Amino acid sequence: MDDVSRKNLQVHTEQVKPLEEYYMKQKKLLDFQVAGGPVETLQGFLVALHLQHMDAVSSVQLTAGC
Question: Of 29, 34, 7, 32, whose CA–CA distance to 18 is shortest?
Fold first, then answer.
């Protein structure tokens, strides 16, 4: 592991991880896996947020600016 990667991992461990744990305990953190292109990612995100009622046309329009 190079020095930059090691430093990034250290920063994550020291700063980001406690923040993630805090929001997880508050039930305000969504664990979301990104796969596929922007449309598939947005559709998966909407489902995770229980917003699956949005139609595919709206999803495509929302990702057009990405």
Answer: 29
Q: Where exactly are the structural domains of the chain?
A: 1-31, 32-66
Alpha-carbon gap, residue 57 to 21, rounded angstroms: 36
Please write the tens of the pLDDT for every residue from 27-52: 888 877 777 888 888 888 888 887 75
* Residue 19 · residue 10 · CB < 8 Å: no
Tokens of 66: 């990405």
Amino acid residing at 7: K
Q: Above 60 in pLDDT, residue 66?
A: no
Q: Which residue in 30, 11, 5 sits closest to 20, CA to CA?
A: 30
Distance CA 65, CA 40 (A): 15
